Amino acid sequence: MNAVEVKSICKSFGKNIVIKNLSFDVKKGDKIAIFAPSGSGKTTLLNILSGIDLNFTGNYNINLPFSVVFQESRLFPYMTVIENILFGCKLKKITITDDIYQKIENWLNITSLKGYEKYYPYELSGGMKAKVSLIRAFIVNPEIILLDEPFKSIDIYSKQRIIEFIRQNYPDITMILVTHNIDELPLIGGKILQFSKSPLENYNEITIQNNMTISEIIEKIYENS
Amino acid sequence: MYPPYIIPSPFTVLKNITKYLDKDFFIHFSLSIYRTFTGFFIALILGTFLSLFTHSSKMQNTFLIFLALFQVIPGTILGIIFLILSGIGSTTPIVLVASLTISTVYINATNVLLKRNENLEAVIKVFDGKNQELIRYLLLPTLVPITRSNLTLGMGLGLKVVVLGEFIGSQNGLGYLLNVARVYFQMDKVFFYLIVLLLFMVLYEFVINIIFIVFFQKYLYSE
After folding, report:
1. Does A52 touch chain B (CB under 8 A)?
2. Alpha-carbon gap: A142 to the closest alpha carbon of chain B (Å)
3. Per-residue pLDDT tens for B94-122?
4. Cβ within 8 Å, pair A76-B120
5. CB atoms within 10 A of CB B34
6. What pLDDT sits at residue A167?
7. Interhelix angle for A156-169 vs A126-138, to 10°?
8. Domain extent for B184
9. pLDDT at residue A121 is higher than 90
10. Residue B117 belongs to domain with CATH number
11. What CATH number belongs to A2-202?
12. Nearest CB neighbour to B119, from listed A67, A72, A122
């Protein structure tokens, strides 16, 4: 079953074409990294898939409940950390059970945010805000997660810990990660859709084996480009 | 130098303060405050909701022009029109305050809503938030800082308008007292009433500040 189906999507800003006739499918449970240079239209693609940008041609289907982690943390400044985390549940009318509190507890421990529950965003660093934003997206228990460079301001150790935690606790989640950071690719695993230039049109599909190192992935990327 | 019956010294005014602070004065003063509060809060609530409504229905540009035009009409002319329509009493100053402050409230609120945080709006949409949640969790909190300014600007303007309305056509209120004092050339009373107005605004600002610090401080935090 395809969790995400993208068919002939085109998007331009004036005369600047950023996505040209792009099609791909993502199967349920697949982990896909969209790897492309900065400014090539990755965020635009994710905005389309998440339903924020409606001004495009072509079509797409997202067949399962999804959640999004944006490039910027996008926390509500007048809500505390815990209120921001629970905000998605509140909007999706998910009853806050002990199980959800337990999950939040685990997330807070893994992201070293324990003790910061009552802090407001202005009291947090950029990395901490990014972690809160990640928790907010995962806590609604989505079946698909769209991640737009979510680890940009998170240090490598925290990043590894968080990804390991996601792998263990959300093994069946379908993931679309948008990034231009090579070091994030082996952490995610799965497939890479490699775009070498703008607009997003043709791509090489690279499968990452579980034990592949960064240098092996880089080698593969250069082989294909 | 002007003689004391034209411009009395502050000391003369202070010395006679007990003379002015009689029961009648408090009745007139509380009437003016009641009219200001009623008129201004009608404008604040209507202006804010009108702004939210026109924002949701994307009609704000039409209403902005209409209400900006409304601001051009001089208060005295409006006051006379309302006086003819509703006669002497509390209705004229209340309607006058509401009609003269609503455009300020609406224009301020609409301009803030036009510059709302679209990133946070996207978050609400992504988590299946509807219009109701958008208003509750984004638009209303966005309006808090401008409501703070509106409470200061609008109340000041409202008080001036009420006094003007009472001055034009009322048998009570601070404006009426000012008119009587003017007619009988009691400049010490005129100055006293002005001092009372100033002191009231100082007290009002103090209370509003406390309310905002206690209940709304978090809406003023940056991201």
Report:
1. yes
2. 11
3. 888 888 888 889 989 999 998 889 999 99
4. yes
5. 15
6. 86
7. 10
8. 10-221
9. yes
10. 1.10.3720.10
11. 3.40.50.300
12. A72
